[in-house]
Structure formats: structure tokens, C-alpha cells
Amino acid sequence: MWRKIIxxxxxxxxxxxxxxxxxxxxxxxxxxAIGVALFVRSQLGxxxxxxxxxxxxxxxxxGLGNASMINSSITLTVSIIFAFKFINVGTIVSTVGxxxxxxxxxxxxxxxxxxxxxxxxxxxxxxxxxVVMCMGCGLSVALRFGFSSTDSIIFRILDFHPTWQxxxxxxxxxxxxIVAGFLLGGIVGVGTVIGFLFTGPMVSFFxxxxxxxxxxxxxxxHPFNQMMSGKKKKEVEKKTQEAEIEAFEEVLxxxxxxxQADR
Length: 263
Hints:
transmembrane helix, mainly alpha, membrane, single chain, Integral membrane protein
């Protein structure tokens, strides 16, 4: 049984590919940690997941780190039970490594920014934090090396509903985090609204870019990544429609030939 699990998770990957994917997964979580730290330091509202963690902290008085561990434990357990095929090394890195990276990055950003807390600086922090965080999430998704536990659950749902899109599912999940966090006392602000509206679409935007510019040269690209590009999706839909029309015409022609032969 264990051999089958290992083959399913790592089959076809060389040691070099494993090392590259692990390194890129750590890089993705570092980018996410930088983005989240910028969001939190702006004090204009955090990204959706941070609002949820803030609410847990304010309710349980357990500290933000422990709140993150509680959330990770719950989502990882659910993903192991219902979305095991999406779990891999990247899932462990995002679950365990993210909190460590955030704890390292946050004070450094605090030192760099210092006491410069003007509204302009805060706005720049939100904008940069949003882009960097979504870049990290996009790389994590593009790697197909085991998503975060939350994304694993999302993609499992998409398995049952293939016509649904990741970006809209991401917005829905983020909305649930915001509402739950707010009800528990988490702070909601401009940054929260921006994160809620743009995280899903921006992650979908970065996935095919990472796939083309970074993963393809390393021979780690995945065909599904380009499907997250709106342009590529339209091309695929067009080709599918053309193929269906061609197949329908072939059936009609065969029917005509059969009728003529019967006559």
C-alpha cells in the first residue's frame, strides 16, 4: 500500500525534479509570507485568511501563530480525508513552513518600514503585498506539487464540478473566511476588500505565466496550467466546438451513406 502511495505521489519525478519542486515550493511560500506581512503591517485590513486567524486569536486568546496552527490542523485533516490526491510535499511546506517563514519575514519588513506609516506608504504596502502574495499562490498552484490544504479542498470540489472556475471558488472561500473572522472579532478594512475581490483572478493570472516562464524551461510545466488562462481556455473551447461539429457532420454523412445503400 505504501509503495503505491509513494508511486502515486512521486512516480515519474527524478531526484532533481523533486529538489527543484521543493525549492520552488519554499520560494512560493516565502512570497506569500512577504505579501501577508505587508498586508498586516499596513494596518488597513488583512487578506481574508488573516482576518479569520485574527478572529480566532481574539476569540481564543491563543496568539496569531497558534491560531494559524489550529487552522492548518483543521484544513490539513479535512484535505487528507477528502482531497488526498492533491496533497504532496508542497502541502507540507505550505502548512508547516509558512508560519516559520512569516515569523522570519514580518519583523524584517517592520524594520525596513520603520515608523513611516503615512497613508501613501500603507497604500503601496497593500498593492505590493497583494501582487507578491498572488505571485506566490500562483507558483504554488502551477507546481502541482501538492497545494495548500485549503486549495486542495477547493480543487477536490472542482473535481466534482469541472465547469466551475478556480477564481470564483477562491473568492467564495475567501468570503467565508472574512465573514467568519469578522464575526469572531477580526478586523476588516480596505485591504480585506481588495484581497477578497482580486486574489482569485490574480492567482489565475499568474499560474500560466509561472508555467511558461519558469516551469517550462525546467521541464516542470503542466498542461492544465495554461487552461487557467482566459485566452487559452477560449482557444480550447473553440477547438472542442469545432471537433464536435466535425464529428456530428461525420455521423450525418455515415447516415446518408447508409440510407443510400439501403435504397
